[in-house]
Amino acid sequence: MSTSRSMKIRSRSAHATLAALAAVLGLASAPAGAGPSPAGRVYYDYARVIDVQPLYRTVRIPREERECWDERVAVRERHGGDSYTPMVVGGIIGGVVGSHIGKGRGRDAATVAGTLLGASIGRDIARADAHEDVHYTTETRCRVRKVYDEEERVDGYRVTYRYRGHTFVTRMPYEPGRRIRVRVRVTPVWDD
Question: Which of 86, 82, 174, 172 is nearest to 123 (CA)?
């Protein structure tokens, strides 16, 4: 084969390869919405808001409350009977009386017995003289308890909007203003 003929074949082959490569790249970079799509075409637009109504919910809010009241309380006061004097005096008198009874070691025993008996009698006399006074006073008592307050809070908005002559209603977490953005999907309808 001649060199010029071989160059022409190579040149045609290179052009064919470049054309095929360009066709493949052209298909790969074509926009998704350019050809028929089973899902249809999606685009965004704006719709006019015609009504907005706040939606409320009731919320229970806990708080602590101090509750106080006055209560009548009995106070007891004991008077007398807490002194050791009657017991000591009784012991002395009983010891003196006991020392006059008996002789020898019996006298010692009688003195001890008289002392103990006299102290016991003195203690009983002191207790008999004791008395208790009861009077009443008012004391304030308090406790803390949990109470609940209820309040209404905005929980969202019921938005009515019009798009191309049709009215729609949706719920939104915020107040949208005079218009809202909508997503529109266009798909063909196949007649059966």
Answer: 86
Cβ partners under 8 Å of residue 163, min gap 6 = 45, 47, 48, 182
In tens digits, what is the pLDDT along the chain, a chain of 192 residues? 555 544 444 445 544 444 444 444 443 333 444 444 456 789 999 999 999 999 999 999 999 999 999 999 988 887 665 666 776 777 677 767 767 776 777 777 777 777 777 777 777 776 766 677 888 899 999 999 999 999 999 999 999 999 999 999 999 999 999 999 999 998 888 876
Residue 67 to residue 160: CA distance in whole angstroms? 49
- What does pTM read for this prediction? 0.41
Q: Please give the full DSSP string across 38-98, using - where no structure is assigned.
A: TT-EEEEEEEEEEEEEEEEEEEEEEEEEEEEEEEEEEEEEEESS--SHHHHHHHHHHHHHH
For strands 131-163 and 166-172, give the pairing: antiparallel
What does the alpha-carbon distance between residue 77 and residue 130 come to, in Å, rounded to a whole number? 11
Q: What are phi and psi of 81, to 5 degrees?
A: 80, -5
